[in-house]
Amino acid sequence: MVTALRRAGRSDSPVVTYGIIALCTLVFLLQLFTGTFGPIFQALAFQGGFAATEPWRMITSIFVHLSILHLLFNMYSVYVFGPLLESMLGRWRFAALFLLAGFGGSVAVLLVAPTIAVAGASGAIFGLLGAFFVIQRHLGGSSRQLIVVIVLNLVIGFVVPGIAWQAHVGGLIVGALVGFIFVRTRNRSQRTVQWLALGGTAAALIALTVAGVAGVA
């Protein structure tokens, strides 16, 4: 922990990655004190019926987890891919990627399986994988191992009961889209276009949420 804090003090440290891990850990500790599925979980988890009245749950559900193993697996994934992507993209872009991918996972759940309750950072993590795949391909790197990781985890989501594969697929698609935006707007002169494209992605997700709410209603 001391080493992580020292690294966080450096200008090139993956502050957003560490912040995500710290926030998810803090929320889970609060869950342990109040009951894993107690008031914290009930206030932050997402289910399609909440989209109309409490839409912020589509983001807050990213930071809630179902068990210590669920938390550890997801935070390990963030720790592996987060620093690399954050160093490539910068802190604000990485934060935008993570949140948009997590939002995309919730939107997919709303559209495909609105009756199930979901929690966890898996959708956002799949977004990191999708973005990393697109960026790696753009840079000409080999992506075979990454494809194996993505396919294996998608299969697990389809095979193992109790896993919201819809969030995985939604996060993966949105993450790949955001990664595509980044690689196509790399020049400083394209910064405005880049942020407009990211805003358009967020607007599209909001529009899909409105459509999903109408479908649920």
Number of strands: 2
User: Largest sheet, described in full?
Assistant: 2 strands, antiparallel
Helix content: over 70%
Top-tier CATH class: Mainly Alpha
Beta content comes to under 5%
As residue ranges, the low-confidence spans are none
The ordered H/E elements are HHHEHHHEHHHH
How many helical elements? 10
CATH H-level homologous superfamily name: Rhomboid-like
The structure class reads mainly alpha
What's the architecture, going by CATH?
Up-down Bundle
| Annotated CATH topology | Rhomboid-like fold
Question: How would you characterize this protein structure?
Answer:
The chain has helices at residues 2-8, 15-34, 39-44, 57-60, 68-89, 91-112, 122-138, 144-159, 165-184, 191-216, and strands spanning 46-47, 117-118. With 217 residues, the chain is an all-alpha fold. It has a single domain (2-216), classed as Up-down Bundle (Rhomboid-like fold). The chain has a two-stranded antiparallel ribbon. The mean pLDDT is 92.
